[in-house]
Structures are given as C-alpha cells and as structure tokens.
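To fix ideas, we close by showing one paired sequence and structure record:
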Amino acid sequence: MSEVATPHRAASEAGDHFGLDAAFVDGVAEALRSDDKERIRKRVGGLHHADMADLIEHLDDDDRRLLIEAVREDFNPEVLPELAPQVRDTVMDALGFEDFAAALSELDSDDAIHIASKLTEDERAAIAKRMPQATRMLIEQGLAHPVDSAGRLMQRELVAVPNYWTVGETIDYMRAAQNLPDRFYVIFVVDARHRPRGMVELSRLLRSKRPEKMQDLIEKDVEPVPVEMDREDVAFRFKQRDLVTAPVIDKSGRLVGQITIDDVVDIIEQEAAEDILKLAGVGNTQVSSLYNAIIQTSTSRFYWLFINLLTAFLASWVVGLYEDSIAKLAALAVLMPIVAGMGGNSGTQTLATAIRAIATRELDSSNAVRICFKELFVGMINGLLFAAIVGVAAGWWFTDAMLGIVIGVAMFINMTVAGLSGIVIPLLIRKFGSDPADSGGVILTTVTDVVGFFTFLGLATWLLL
C-alpha cells in the first residue's frame, strides 16, 4: 500500500465517506510493529483529529501505546474528547499524567470538564497537580454542577461586552484581546451586573456601522439557560428555537458560560444511543461499550437477562396451568408461540414509537388519552386482520374450524392488549419518575406473553376440550 494512500474507504463502499479504510488501519498497525516512527508519522500526520481517534480505537492496546509514543510530540489534544472512555484510559497511560494534563489544558473548558468527569478521584488529583491553576479551577467549578446539567455542558470561553459599547469598540476589543475562544458565533451583551441582555451574531456585527450601539443590535428573544437545567431540556430548547448558541446563567442571573450546537448534537446522539441500548437491556452507552472487558460486559448484561428469566418463568407458569389441555391437543403447543410472538412484536412497535415521542416531547399528559385511543384502535384493526389470516391458516392446517376460531379470537385480544400496553406502559413508568426505556420492554413482553398464552389456552380448554 502506498504511503500516501487515502485513509478513507471509497464513497461507493457502504456509502461511507468518512470511515477509515481497513487497509489503512492494517498498514498503520504494520508500521507500528516495524518500529519505524518516521513511517508512522508520514501515514498519520495529516489525519483529522476525529479520524485519528477512530484509528486509535481500531487498534489493540499494544498498538495504541506504540502509536501514542510515535506521535507524542505532535499529539493533538482534540483527539481526546472523541475517544471512548475505556480507550482514553489507555491513551492516558501511554501519555503519562504530565502530557495528559498538558493536553487537557489546551482543550475548551467543556471538553476538559467532560474528560475529567470520567476519571477516578486519584487520576483527577494526579492530573490537577500538573495543570495551570486557572484550568484546574475551571474544571473544579464545572464538576461541582450535577452530572446531566447545563453547568457540566457549558463552555466558559465566550465574548461578552457592555451594552453601552459601540460596534467599533467591540471590534477593536476583539482585535486586541489575547484570550478569545478559538471559535465563536455570537457576542453576548451584558449589563453592569454581568447579566445577559441579548446577543449579537457576528454576521450582523460585521454589517453594522462602527458608531452603532451594541444594545441596538441585540436579539432580545433568546432565553438564557439556567445552569441547573437538565441537558435533555437544553437540547429540546435548541430544537424548538433553532438555536446555534445560548447563554448560560447562574442563580443570580449572571452570565457564566455558553452552550453551542456541537454540544447539543452530542447530547442528542448520546440520549438516542442510551434509549436504544436500554430497550435491548444492555444499559447505558458507557457500560455497553465495545471496548469494555469481557467480565465487565457480561456482568452488565446479566441483570436484565435475569429479570427476563423471571418473567419467562411467569409465562411458563401460565402455560403449565393448561398442561392437560396441551397433552390432549398437540396443535395447541404448535400454535401458541404465534399468538404470544405476534402480540410481542405488535406491542414493541408501539412501545418504540411511544418512547421516542416521550423523549421528543411529542407525547405528554395533554394528548396522552387521544394517543392511547388511537393505538388501541390500531391494535384492534391489525388484530382483526391477523386474526382472520391466522384463523383461516390454522383451521386449514389442522382441518379444525373451531381451532381456527379460537386462535383468531386469541390473536385479536392479544394484539389489542399489546397496542394499548405499548403506549400505556411507558406513560405509567414516566409518571412514576423512571425511564421507560429501562424496563418498558421487559414489562411489555411479560404482558403479551401472559395474555397471549392465557387467552389462547383458556379458550381452547373451554371450547375444544
């Protein structure tokens, strides 16, 4: 492979323009084992920091350490926020506390706080000793806020000017200032008590005359974000108001930071990933990471598997009540998984839709009753259609019209219950202050299994035996 080969796979391969090419990763691993540092630097020197993070994650632990050692002098701190926590621990070990602290100090405050929050107390203390005092204080202040609050999310670096300044004074200040953020989109305008009165986009500032007052240019309809606001509420506000940046205020109303759209994108991705993983019963994004050790991964999944086992025993107990009926009519054993399985799948469709709607605030107490009735009727319609299909098929298969009627009625009842349960269960879980994604799937499966087996076997016992 050429030393200047592109690190990205062709756009035609899986439609992916950005994923690292497997041959490129293998080439880097080969170069690492040859211990040719010049060759390694030549291969990875031009990588974007996000691609560098992907490369580090694709390598094994030994190759990661070799790569960090090879690029230590040119290591880009921007790589650190892109890494999975488990991989970042390996990078920290390879860099050592001194270089890791130096890299952390070069990051924006929000990224530095996020990374510091993932470290152990001992690691944080060791790194803090090697940091400049100003950076150490910013991190300590950030960690004092609740984990999922705006205070943890916000960036301390911003541009704020008094409301009596002119456009000319603001531009001159920014040209002379040495500590401006690397990237910013707006200028916050504050009063004498440092409370935000609005913000001015750079595009508007550049189109304005120098004598104009900043207070005459501000957007006044931007609501400040309280420092204790939950990060999901922050993301919802950005979505509802089409924001790119928002000011963050403390309890006294003073401007203490800003939240930018790139942070909100991360929130949306993390929350979506957590909900998907919780629905599958594998915990949050950190616990279920691909980079966890085998024992840690097994332990994290054991809990929900054990709960599923208990609910399976409940369903089996219901089946056991009709053991004599199943022994007399073998067709019941053949057909009963169809009733429970279709109910479970139907309910899961509704459950997934409901959890998404709750997360995006589309479903709340104001429209819950209407949506419940809608899902009830959807379940009834699909139940009726599949009852007819399955009833005819089962009656023809076993040449028993009454058996077809029994399974059709059971199918209708279970799919109706599944449709209603799929919307009611997450609403009830939410009402009691829990996350529907955590336990909604387990409860729903239990309901559809129990109702499915009970109605089918109960009707069969009553009508056929």
Observations:
- Residues 401-431 form the longest helix (31 residues).
- The domain at 294-463 is CATH 1.10.357.20 (Tetracycline Repressor; domain 2).
- The CA atoms of residues 14 and 21 lie 11 Å apart.
- Strands lie at 160-162, 186-190, 196-201, 225-226, 245-249, 255-260.
